[in-house]
Predict the structure.
Amino acid sequence: MKTEAVTGEARSEADNLDCIHCGLCLAVCPTYLQLANEADSPRGRIYLMDALKEGRVEPSSGNLHKHVLLCLECRACETACPSGVRFSIMMNAARAAILERRRFSTIERAVRRFVFDRAMSSRVVLRLGFAALRIYQLCGLQRLVRGSGILKLFPATLGTMESLLPVIPNRASYSLPVRGTGNGRLSVAFFEGCIMPELFGPTHEATIRVLERNGVAICLPSRQTCCGALHIHEGEMGKALDLARRNIDAFEDDGADFIVTNAAGCGAMLKEYGQLLKDDPVYAGRASAFSHRVKDISEFLDMLEIGGEMGRLELKVTYDDPCHLLHAQGIRSAPRNLLRRIPGIEFVEMSDSDRCCGSAGIYNIMQPGLANQILAEKIANIVRTGASVVATGNPGCLLQIEAGLRARKLAIRVVHPVELLDEAYRRGSRSDASSHSSQQRRCE
């Protein structure tokens, strides 16, 4: 089956035309729809970014900061734009320019350095941090903290972060070879990400089981690191490019046909390494080759035309389009196709499923007020479907929607689509499962 995705790297530079200020983006911009302020629309932000580029406004301008940093970078404007304006490229460049001149307090600077230079790129630091959070939940301290209201005494950011915490599972448990054999069989190198193994270990395990069930050999390059998406959205361009180079090095000799990820935000970033490093004399060609191999798990499985016996799941399911799967990668049909293949599922479309949920990386932490307004509309649309399950393919969306449902005491389950596939397979024939049990080992 032909894939529907259009990667950022594959789009021609000739398509990157100037904004004609037609205003078609206004109807899809979450911040404009909430605030009705031209400066908080893509068109208005482009005016500001043009002014920055031409020197008519300083990077230190508070007005520029306000409107640029309120953007979710959901990229719905890129889908709506008739001129092919690459808004995200402009926004990332503007945020990098602002960061260079922005004055941070000593505490802010220390926190940024820890998060972006240490935690996000170190598996050890992340593992220790989430292990501590798991103990915090298991020992009952979380219930005490939430019940006492003590978080109101601390900065609002801390309370927002705590409210988003799901029940932290055991870390993902799987053993995969580092490299494939290159023996001509269909094989994938699995991109773990930084947060996914810690918060969504069961999703990773489900992904691997579904791939194995369909006869795909899997390997896990050991030197991989964070994709850099959060860094680039926060203006940390240099660090993002460094992480991109590290990942290219890590996956270059994996011997796999494709690189598969189950996180939409990571996939969008990985597919744009070619664009980001196009002027790097050492990495330009290698980055382009890397990006062309990247597939979202839904895109890959839909292309594969999955088989095998599935058990019935008597569930009413709706689907939320992650912004960086739909708008950044152009993938809409694949996850829906997969859900409709599961016996017993009643699939119902959600109104405005293509609208952002308000997560947007760490936007829901930095801009909680506006993020919650956007989330409220998403939750209302979910409830109107009457579904008992909402599926979405990005960790930020999973966390944000789950937190919104939990706050409203709504018993609606939030899952990654691949988890429903895995559940259906596990209810299916055991003999079918055993027929593929050797695929992982043959990748060694």
